[in-house]
Write a structure and sequence with these properties.
By secondary structure, the chain is an all-alpha fold. The protein contains 3 helices and no strands.
Length: 69
């Protein structure tokens, strides 16, 4: 199930549709299969969120834009 969902064509990797599909799988993953506890989510409250200027600093240069398709 997870391996099949992760078999995304390269040109579809960085799209909202792909991320939505992968995020829907999270509740179906058995906890015993989890090997790490790192997951980054930007909260819905503007007070806690990173701003566009924050994201343009060298500290976040590894992040990629998710295409809107």
């Amino acid at each position: 199930m997870i391996a099949q969902a992760c078999g995304v064509p390269k040109n579809d990797l960085w799209t909202r549709r792909t991320f939505a599909s992968l995020l829907q799988l999270i509740p179906r993953i058995p906890f015993s299969a989890v090997r790490s506890d790192v997951f980054y989510v930007i909260p819905g409250s503007p007070d806690w969120a990173l701003t566009e200027p924050d994201l343009l600093t060298p500290e976040f240069s590894y992040l990629r834009l998710i295409e809107n398709r």
